[in-house]
Amino acid sequence: MSQRTGEPVIDFNEARATKMEEKRRKTERIFFKQMLGVYSVLANDKIKPIEIIDISEDGLSFQVPFDTKNPWPADLSDLNLRLYFSQDTYLPVVVKIQNSRAGIDQGVRIVRYGCAIDKTLTSYTAFQQFVRFLKTYSEHAHKDMGEVSVFYL
Q1: Domain edges within the chain
Q2: 66 three-state secondary structure
Q3: How far apart are CA 43 and CA 134, in angstroms?
Q4: Single pTM value for the model
């Protein structure tokens, strides 16, 4: 509080950090939904799509629709994930589920899982660089407002 007026003092650094964190999360979600396919490898050599919610060098969170008849993942153990950057190439990642919670996302029942990344895999270095790229990208990305026309020769 300000000693003169009794009004709260605004910490601009904290406000800026909060705004940057919101922008980073929004940018990541757009990237995951539109540019990157993320799947979990099931025991029967099939893959199941998952939706990444948040990501860091230490872990990630993902969500899946809630299914009372076939809850998944049922055993809450290590999960093999594939981050697809094209239709036929992916980065393998292994995560260990740390927590879960039920929720509603856009009117659909979901379960959200918080996971730790297995840093011992050789692919971890690529994963770490990917996360760093996402952070830097979100800090410098601009929304295309359509103000520039495409010119074809």
Answers
A1: 12-138
A2: coil
A3: 30
A4: 0.72
Q: CB 55: neighbour CB atoms within 10 A? A: 26
The phi, psi pair for 106, rounded to 5°, reads 55, 45
Question: In the CATH scheme, what architecture does the domain 12-138 have?
Answer: Beta Barrel (2.40)
Q: Which of 103, 111, 119 is nearest to 74 (CA)?
A: 111
Longest CA–CA span in the chain (Å) reads: 69
User: How far apart are alpha carbons 62 and 77 in whole angstroms?
Assistant: 14
pLDDT digits (tens, 9 = 90+) for 8-48: 767 777 777 677 677 666 666 655 665 678 888 887 788 88
Cα 63 to Cα 9, 35, 85: the distances in Å are 38, 17, 20
